[in-house]
């Protein structure tokens, strides 16, 4: 189980426990986090699950593979150095306390 916090641009936060093995797009949609759509269901073809990983957690969020790297160029809100597609981050004890910042498309 990992306790995850999603922070919105307006200062609102949603926190929830996500079961190990679930991805954090699934965790977001199950907890009605706005602006994390997950349209493709996690198969890396939509980029609607874009988040910014809090800088203190970025290293622990895992490796970005080539497909995610390509899809990160297609996000609504421009990619930053701490961008990830949250369907590619898998909940684990290591990520307990993780903070994600949710970009809001204009
Ligand atoms: S849910 Fe589509 S790329 Fe993550």
Care to describe what's here?
This protein is an alpha+beta fold and 106 residues long. The chain has a domain at 35-106: Beta-grasp domain (Ubiquitin-like (UB roll), Roll), CATH 3.10.20. 12% of the residues lie in helices and 21% in strands. It has helices at residues 24-30, 66-71, and strands at residues 2-7, 13-18, 50-53, 83-85, 99-101. A hairpin with a 5-residue loop joins strand 1 and strand 2 (13-18). The longest helix has 7 residues, at 24-30. The relative contact order is 0.31. Bound molecules: FE2/S2 (inorganic) cluster. Residues 25, 38-40, 42, 44-49, 71, 85, 87 line the site of FE2/S2 (inorganic) cluster.
Number of helices: 2
Give the distance, in angstroms, between the N- and C-terminal Cα atoms: 33 Å
Largest sheet: 5 strands, mixed
Low-pLDDT segments: none
Q: What is the β-strand count?
A: 5
**Roughly what is the average pLDDT, rounded to an integer?**
97
Judged by helices, strands and strand pairing, the structural class is alpha+beta
Adjacency order of strands in the biggest sheet: 2-1-5-3-4
Shape verdict? globular
The first-level CATH class of the domain at 35-106 is given as Alpha Beta
Rg, rounded, reads: 12 Å
Bound molecules: FE2/S2 (inorganic) cluster
Kindly state the percentage of residues in helix: 10-25%
The CATH topology of the domain at 35-106 comes to Ubiquitin-like (UB roll)
Beta-strand proportion? 15-25%
State the assembly state of the protein chains.
single chain
Order of helices and strands: EEHEHEE
CATH level-four homologous superfamily name of the domain at 35-106: Beta-grasp domain
* Architecture per CATH nomenclature, i.e. the level-2 architecture of the domain at 35-106: Roll
């Amino acid at each position: 189980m990992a306790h995850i916090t999603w922070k919105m641009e307006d200062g609102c936060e949603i926190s929830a426990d996500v079961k190990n093995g679930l991805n954090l797009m699934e965790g977001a949609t199950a907890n009605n986090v706005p602006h994390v759509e997950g349209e493709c269901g996690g198969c890396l073809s939509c980029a609607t699950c874009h988040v910014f990983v809090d800088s203190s957690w970025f290293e622990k969020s895992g490796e970005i593979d080539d497909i995610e790297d390509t899809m990160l160029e297609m996000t609504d809100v421009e990619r930053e150095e701490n961008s990830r597609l949250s369907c590619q981050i898998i909940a684990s004890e290591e990520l307990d306390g993780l903070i994600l910042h949710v970009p809001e498309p204009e």
